[in-house]
Design brief:
alpha+beta, Fumarylacetoacetate hydrolase, domain 2, four-stranded antiparallel beta sheet
């Protein structure tokens, strides 16, 4: 399994971090060792002092494909879940300043909590899915799939031009505004519509 993630896919998030709007989707990876399942706690790593939450809708790839036409992309994923792209913002800032990859800032152990998946049949409109993240009972991020600059199908088509997608791969589709730091003792709860899919602590 590989995790392919999209950066800068919500205009409001681009603005809050004062980044440039990309001409094409920004792609990065997380290794399978980044995954946390079953609401396991997130252990704050010792090599950073500034871990931020970035909640995202995630897609589960259901069949192998490459060079996928956007009009057929919907045939290549079968479920949607919720994930958090934990980012060591201090490490990312250092890498960006030197023009280097974000791998250590995005791919460290435990940096990708993912929820159970919901079948596509539970969503009447894939272009109108609400999701949010609460930290200690306070809503920090909320978004809707209609706010994405690149749709699910466009993302799959773009990635597959360069990288073969395989069954079981997971795609992180970008985060809305409201990203911010977490600290030891925080409780994170993530929702898709009104269904709680994530509920874990930072330790």
């Amino acid at each position: 399994m590989k995790i392919v993630a999209i950066g800068r896919n919500y205009a409001d998030h681009i603005a809050e971090l004062k980044n440039e709007v990309p001409d094409e989707p920004v792609i990065f990876f997380k290794p399978d060792t980044a995954v946390l399942r079953n609401n396991e706690p997130f252990y704050y790593p010792e090599y950073t002092n500034d871990v931020h939450h970035e909640v995202e809708l995630i897609l589960r790839i259901s069949r192998e494909g490459k060079n996928i036409d956007p009009k057929f992309a919907h045939k290549y994923y079968d479920a949607i879940g919720l994930g958090i792209d934990f980012t060591a913002r201090d490490l990312q800032a250092k890498a960006k300043a030197k023009g280097l990859p974000w791998t250590l800032a995005k791919g460290f152990n435990g940096s990708a909590p993912i929820s159970e998946f919901m079948p596509l049949s539970e969503f009447p409109d894939l272009q109108n899915i609400n999701f949010r993240l609460d930290v200690n009972g306070e809503t920090r991020q909320q978004g809707n799939s209609k706010m994405m600059m690149n749709s699910f199908d466009d993302i799959i088509a773009y990635i597959s031009k360069f990288i073969t997608l395989k069954k079981g791969d997971v795609i992180f589709t970008g985060t809305p505004e409201g990203v911010g730091p977490v600290k030891i003792g925080d409780r994170l709860e993530g929702y898709v519509e009104d269904k709680k899919l994530l509920d874990f602590e930072v330790k």
